[in-house]
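Lecture 7 notes: from sequence to structure.
We start with the chain below.
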Amino acid sequence: MIDWAKYLFLDTETTGLNPHLPETRCTLIAWLDGAGSADYFVPSQALVSDRAELQELLSSRTLVCFNAHFDIAQLEKLGFLVEAWECSYLLSLFAWPG
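Predicted structure tokens for the same chain:
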């Protein structure tokens, strides 16, 4: 059985596709805890001004993103450190090759 409380699900929305050039416009974050779930839509300016809670989640959980390399690049541009991550796109290629 999967312990969903160990994961943080995240997607960034940007103004372009190059991870080094676009501006991060917003970030969608979801996680499960003992009381149920928490979902957030966070404008990027809020990430920069109040980063402690998100950094705590990134440090204590495994980040799951569909295109992890892109999303992690966006988070790192904003000054966040991602320690553990999984890319659901890459995992899907292993599960359903070809």
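Points to note: The chain has four helices and five strands. Strands lie at 7-14, 24-33, 36-43, 62-65, 85-87.
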